[in-house]
Amino acid sequence: MGEIHSMTKDKRLALTFTSPGAVRVEEETIPEPQPGQVLVRSQLSAISAGTEMLVYRGEFPDSLAVDETIAVLGRRFTYPLKYGYALVGEVVNSASEETAEWVDRRVFAFHPHESHFWTYPDQLFPIPEGLDNERAVFYPNMETAATLTMDGRPSFGEKVVVMGQGVVGLLTTALLSRFPLGSLITLDRYPLRRKISAGLGVQTSLDPLDPQFQQKLTDQLSADMDYQGADLVYELTGSPPALDQAIRTAGFHGRVVVGSWYGTKPVTLDLGERFHRSRIQIFSSQVSSLNPEFSGRWNKTRRTRWAWKMLAELQPHTWITHCYPIQQASEAYDLLDKKPEEAVQVVLTY
Fold first, then answer.
1. pLDDT tens, residue by residue, 106-119
2. By 3-state DSSP, what share of the chain in percent is helix, strand and coil, each rounded to 5?
3. How far apart are the first and last CA of the chain?
4. How far is residue 133's CA from residue 232's CA, in Å, rounded to a whole number?
5. Which of 21, 60, 296, 322 counts the highest number of beta carbons within 10 A?
6. Could you tell me if 126 and 105 are in contact, meaning their C-beta atoms sit under 8 angstroms apart?
7. Domains of the chain (ranges plus CATH)?
8. Is 12 helix (H, G, I), strand (E, B) or coil?
9. Are the CB atoms for 128 and 308 separated by under 8 Å?
């Protein structure tokens, strides 16, 4: 469902989630700026097929803040809701002389899908010169993938399995492929994602819906007779049943890193078979904070620099499968909801 209105001067187009399965794109007056703010004209924003689709489907806990670390997303999950956190644009105006130097800069912002917005410069990330908008819009997912990689602590010769090859899963796989691992195996039920994954240097990419899947996975992980199972498993599918599979896949004292956010979907785990005696470790990984164990050497600024560097070296823009004008946003969400096998990254243009 969707409602669309045209835009006139001094107006903007803004997307609002109005109820489960419904978004509205409407014209609204651009608010007056506060001293020190700058005006961003949006050029591209990415739709998250994970967290954002939980909002679209109404599968979010209404007791939780949208994101306490991002000022514009500090409110609670409740309809109507403006949401989105991957926007690239250009600064086109300044409310104060001291911020005039920002005008004409290309910037990234953790901001909902809107064609124009005033914000403070400290909420913006200048895009490095030479990095195109199509790669820059992947910044939050690259930041997440970097955090997942750090939290998993892959080591020399380890067998690693990445469950889920959405955008975050693909970026995590791309980073892991640079390590001297014993093997790197990915899992996804969609052929398009497995095809992309196979080109990232993995040993194999398997379909968990294949009747022979478990035997194929076991055979791959048994090639190293010194250690049965995976040393490290990433659960990035967003599907609660996959966590049981992750536990079954891990070997003795194996590590399971959970990057999925399940929202209100219940999680039921079988911890009575081999979990306890196998000393399997389960870790939560979330991009809003850094692992306290790294805090003496790492901060968000250092992570940001490396996220930009990796975006410059990798080719995630080739994973953009669909571009929709913001006026057609309802079609974009409907695609991701009903035909996810056809899409990898969907973006809105302005």
1. 999 999 999 999 99
2. 30, 25, 40
3. 20
4. 33
5. 60
6. yes
7. 11-127+317-349 (3.90.180.10), 141-293 (3.40.50.720)
8. strand
9. yes
